[in-house]
Amino acid sequence: MPRSSYLSRTFYALENEAFRIFWMGTLVSFLGMQMQVIARGYLAYDLTGKNSALGGVMLAFGVPQLLLGMWGGVVADRFPKKKVLVVSQAAIALNSAWLAFMIEFDMVEYWMLVAAGVVQGAGFAFVGPARQAFITDLVGRESIGNAVVLQQLSMNSTRVIGPSFAGILIAVPLLGIAGVYFLTTAGFIVAVFSLWRLPAGNPRPGASDRSPLADLTDGLRYVRRSPAILQLILVSFAVIMIGFPYQSFLPSVAKSVYGVGGFGLGLLSSAAAVGAVAATIVVAGTAGHRRAWSFQPIVAMGFGASVIGFAAAPNFFTGMFALVFVGALASGFQSLNNSLTMTLTERDYHGRVQSISMMSWSLFGLASLPIGVLADHIGIRETLALMGGICIAIVLLITVWGRVRNAAPQAAAEARATLPLSERPSSGS
Fold it and tell me: Are the C-beta atoms of residues 356 and 221 closer than 8 Å to each other?
């Protein structure tokens, strides 16, 4: 679809009313999530004083996603996506409300944070694939690359104000961490009600003719026989599992390295979010460009380098400056990767492919605990630098392997991603 200006190319998916409603619901939901991430990390570290406790909470979030994530993709491809989202997000809202009351009445213990992480992780195992797959039902394939990146923009935008707002509330005695959790619950509830105005997102006819296990196996085979998609997923695994846990340890950096409280922690998170929003807007205007494929590994390795830079930052203000680049490169990579993966995937496989890709967030949770233990032994700065270096090395190895082994299939995939829908060959061509 031709566009007369960069601005119109950047936001054109929002011209679709259904996607606009969906986008706003996602914005409200993720505002609550970002506030809760700060409050949960602050509370976990406050209750225990250990980096491993932060990793333990993320582990609790990651294990159910790892066990249930691919089944979430099967469900998204077999059932109406709106119903899947309503049920899953309602469960997340109830989980948040329970923890809010425990904190309010001073009954919270660390194990409760772990239990809540398990429930939330199980909920997002179904929310994530259904949300991504729902985009195609709302906007169609021609706009999917732009819509996926704008979805990422809604999430990153909440990271600008959410952490700072959470930090402010934590510092207010009458509100505190309990107030943050009550507001996050309200955000989840608003997101549930926003879904009622959207179409059902029904699967294709005959989608449930086979057994769920057969669907799961077929999804894995589809990724295996699609070299370009496989490479995108492997790079995503490496970057998110090894590099993205820096977010989990910002409370530790804020307290033990820079000596700042909740408000300072919010500022650190917001600095990363400012860079993330700026990068996502840039990617939104270029998501369909053929060179996006070439930019992806460069941005991924740049992210690893920025984490090393953050580890070396000598003071709070330098750390904030470094986090702008960390956030920008993290978001740029994630937006490019998601856009390319969704564009290259056939509609019938969107839920399953996204569930496989989102397993990287399960690995994020699993890796956070050993990373936290390592940080307790060698220091958080040294651990962050090691994370960045390993991230660069693995991305480089996967990229070289992919280009040598799959050069022809990848070239065809790049060309297919930039064709109009009517001109794209089917997977069997």
Answer: no
Calpha distance 187→189 (Å, rounded)? 5
141 residue type, one letter: R
Domain parsing of the chain, residue ranges = 7-201+212-418
Cα dihedral: 272, 276, 277, 278 (round 10): 100
DSSP label of 424: P
**Residue whose entry in the numeric block shows the structure tokens 């879904």:** 195
Alpha-carbon Rg for the chain in angstroms: 21
Look at phi and psi of residue 201 and say left if phi exceeds 0, alpha if psi is from -120 to 50, else beta.
left
Sign of CA dihedral 254, 101, 109, 240: negative
The model's pLDDT over 359-408, given as tens digits with 9 standing for 90+, comes to 777 677 677 778 888 888 898 889 999 999 999 999 999 888 877 666 54
Query: Token pair for residue 194?
Result: 């926003």
Contact 163, 273 (CB under 8 A): yes
Can you tell me which residue has the tokens 């064709």? 419
Helix axes 144-171, 176-194, angle to 10 degrees: 150
Domain 7-201+212-418 architecture? Up-down Bundle (1.20)
Question: Whole-prediction pTM value?
Answer: 0.67
- Report CA dihedral (249, 251, 257, 258) to the nearest 10 degrees: 140
- Determine the angle formed by the axes of helices 407-417 and 380-405, rounding to 10 degrees: 100
